[in-house]
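Section 3.1: Structural characterization of target chains.
Under the original work plan, the team committed to producing a structural model for every single-chain target entering the pipeline before any wet-lab resources were allocated. The record below documents one such target. The sequence was received from the expression subgroup and is listed exactly as submitted; it comprises 123 residues.
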Amino acid sequence: MTAEPHELPTARTLEQIIESLKVDRSPRNIRACLPPEDRDHFDKDYRQIMARAMEELDLAPVNDTLAHWWHVARMKASGEYEEVLARAVRVRDQIERGEQVSGRPLRDVLAERAAELGVKLDL
């Protein structure tokens, strides 16, 4: 008898990945929804935070880490990731030049995005 890997299918459309992330926030699904080049980073973060959780008997950092990777998977699947990074670079450059940065508070943006996704955030 051979053991089968516990990987979810990777040949999914971006729409299927986004839908999957709406209903399944398990570490296994989040990892499967990440692009292959991000999975080693996820594995390293997840293993480190689980070891820490075992030592400290605290799952809050685990939940924070999974939330972070969920957002990364969601943004990369929707094509928003590169846009977010480019905007961050522009804002950083403005701040470094001492310029006023326009925009909405991050809390408002996150709350709006969470509502669109049907997710409740405690901000």
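Residues 1-5 have pLDDT under 50 and may be disordered.
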